Amino acid sequence: MATPSPTSALPSTTYKYPPKVVDLRTYADSISRKIIDLKSKRDPTGEHVSAQALLIADAVESACAARSVEVLEPFAAVAVEEIVRLFSSCCAALDAAHQRPRFGAKLSAFAARATSRSPSPSPGELTSLGDYRASLEAVKALLRIVDGQSQLVYSGTLAPLAARRPALLHDAISKSTVVNQVYKTTLQTMANITDGLPFPCKAVAQTVLQLHQHGEAYRTIDSSIGTLIRKVDDFVEVLAKPDGQNIAPGEDIARAVERFFSAVQSIIIRLEILRATAKIKKLVAPTAVKTAVADAQADLDDARRLLDMALQVDTNNSTRKILHAQGLAKSNVNYSSELPASPRILHGRDGELSRLVSCVVDRSRPIRVAIMGAGGLGKTTLANAVVQHVDVAATFGARRFLVTAEAAVEVDDLLTGMLATFGLPASSDPLASLLQHFRSHERTLLVIDNLETIWNSANAQQRRMTEDVLSKLDNVTSLTLIITCRGADLPPDVEWANRDAVVLSTLSPAAALATFTDIAGNVPAPDQPVRDALLKEVDYMPLAVTLLARLVSRGKQLRDLHRRWNSVHTGMLRTQPNGRLDNVDASVQLSIAFLPSDDPAPLQLLSLCAQLPDGMRLPVRNELEGLCGFRDIDGALDVIQGLALVYVTDDDTIRMLSPIRLYMLEKHRPSAAHRAYLLEIYYEIARHAPRDIDPQFPGARDRILPELSNLDALLSSEIRHFDELPSPDLIDAVNVFSSFSRLHVPNERMLTALIPRIEHLPESLALSLWILAEIHWCRNAYNLSLEAATRARSLYQSLSQRLDAARCDQQMGNIHRLKSNYTEAIASLSAARETFNELDRELDVAYCDKDLALVFYEQGNHDDAAALFTSAQEVFLRLDEPANGARCQEMLGDIYRIRGDYQAAETQLESALQTYTSLGSMSDIATCSCALGDVYRSQQCFDAALERLQVAYDIGQKQGNTLGVADALRFRSCVHRDQGQFAQARQLLLDAQRLCEFIEYTRGAEDCAEALDELDRVEHA
């Protein structure tokens, strides 16, 4: 099929190319002319070698000759740069082959003028001349010049059609079921970009289409290229949908897209050259790939930095749009002396209100009070309550005033408005008039609301002028001043009376519930858990609680709102489109708009923090600083903390309010590179999760528990959103995380999400199924556990991994035992034992014997059980497995207890306990102490029994072993029951039952219920 020529739909006059592109074109023409001269003068002794070398010169000449400044020009320029770099290496090889500088040296001199890249490798590092001949042929073929057009640009892509008729192409592809989503995203970018934008914006879609057309082939060169493609996708997605609006034309956006366009062109050329020369391993790999990828990474990162800065400028501009939507445009603001009404609803602020009122009515000194905090926390509401408080009214009378800076563009706007508030005439120096007015009255209370509008201005002069006004107001001793301001940093040079308690927090759960109920009324009992869950989800933020309640009061159903919350989050919390007081997203956006437009680092750090629901801890922050290249991460933190977008806890953890975090997740995701670095850190954290309860378990558990929710969020998100094969790091992290959960709170959710995505990876799938079986086993979901173990065994058998298959048989046998399917249990365990025996796995045989003994024990076949426990114990002791030997001894003790031989039982259990103690195996000490306590109880040695059971309880508490704690409580209840202490026994059983229900241990909860029924019968008897 003939390749279309470039269309004139993209006239060159719409875009002026940077000088480097023109220079490269000139250099290429110069090289071509010099090579033509060399053709007539070439040395006949090196004719064969020279002929091979000239092939690349022909390619350069063909690629650049007679090109107009249109769509092919950037491709040709980059091609020249990349090919000359490769050509320089070839020249050095030719010189080395002839052992004297001839043709190669001359040609290399011309080539050097066209490239500023690193020097050519030394001859000792180069490959054979035959390989270079192949490379020259490959590069010649690479450009594939046909009818004056380079097939590299258009080969097999949709770019020509996209250039001519983007709308038609977008419509056609949107209806296709086979085109990758990336294409749709890219084409949507074209649809969103207006005709008024410069040429590079139009070309983004065509360029990215080219990259993705050959994406799979590029990935075969090096796995790191997948990261490059994800970065490109990330940039395109931001470009296509910045806050759901089209990008507005402007120099900042154009510069960012130009840099991006050039970077992707360069990537395509580099990757095509690498692919074409892939057979020459010594030339291409590994340094060539690494160099190409590193250069491309840097170019893309620079483009993304420019885009972030441009979009941040756009965000600042959008602030005025929100204010305008509220009807607060400068010309419409009514600066009235009339005070706003006292707030009707103000729950959970009694302490703050009392302290503020006490400050304000203090006559001993001039009072300046600041009410700070994030948007939506009720700063204005609290200020109104202070102004309207009866004690404040009695102190100031009619000299109470509230003015808002919300619509002020400049400080002078606020001062002029204040003149109207105080009934003063217009003045050329409004501040002087105001100061004179305040000094002429004995006492005045002034509230300046929303000071952040002018104080947090990107205009440094306005910020300084605001601080100057506050400083001069501070000098008026008869003035009591209150400000409300978004953020946590106080304006300087003012003696704030409440400096130590200045930032508002969210509401308590009780206050949030009271606020909700005052607006929406009581809800039916079945809906109350949904209501409470939603209030918790919004972090009890007053604005979010209020808007949620208003939606319910308007007839929205709580269950419908909960479903919407799970999909759109803060986007549903609005009663007006853009009003700050009627829209959580708009409120958060206003705060983000105050971030500096010339420094992307604060927004980048904020987007990373949003990925972590449990906050960013100091070690993670320190690692990110190096990986992400933050020049001053502490400075970036100061900025976002100063705006109250985050807060820092006593342990140096950066946390965010839920509505702010969810807004950031939706609107400002981190770059692909930054997210990859964050994942790298958390993959490493996951690797250190404990896999067994041993002496090191408590310490390892305590280190990972604070990161558990963050791991859950990151890994779950990665499973949902990866668009290619899951990385081994992700699979390993999910497996380790899930394996740890069975020792804490068993959670199979992540594995069930991963398993369908790795069906093509049998080894990984088998391991994940094995862990899933263990988790289901811990949750007493025996049917699901059996299903997973059966699948894992089948996979291991197909992989000829007999040992792992036998362990699945053993697991299946234990599941059948717990299901009381003793025939199947014996069959599975016997099959596993046979395989272990054939593989000469004596220790595994002993484990099977122990498990078979448990089957016989539960069947009441105590003789056979005792025989197997005894033989297994001997093997364990001989093979230096004292813990397992002690477990067999513990079971032998229980058999003696059942037989009524309490003395023998006590001897066995005491011996087992001594072994566990010497090993420091705390979990085993706990279980053995429970068994020994029950033996003491049976002998009516109640004090000794309670002492042993207290040991078990304390260990369970220290290890966080909820099931162990529940077992200790259940055994203690029996001791109290036997002594007639029924109330204590009942309370202990209820506590044990509650713990079993918490960890979803159904069998334990049922045992507690049966024991409670038995207790009732004994008590009534």
From TrEMBL:
Which domain of life does this protein belong to? Eukaryota
Where in the numbering of this chain does the ORC1/DEAH AAA+ ATPase domain appear?
Answer: 370-482
Among SMART domains, the record links this protein to: TPR (SM00028)
Coiled-coil positions: none
Alphabetical list of Pfam families matching this protein: AAA_22 (PF13401), TPR_12 (PF13424)
Q: Which molecular-function annotation in GO is an example for this chain?
A: ADP binding
Q: Matching PANTHER family, A to Z?
A: HTH-TYPE TRANSCRIPTIONAL REGULATOR RV0890C-RELATED (PTHR47691:SF3), REGULATOR-RELATED (PTHR47691)
Record-given protein name: ORC1/DEAH AAA+ ATPase domain-containing protein
Biological source species? Exidia glandulosa HHB12029
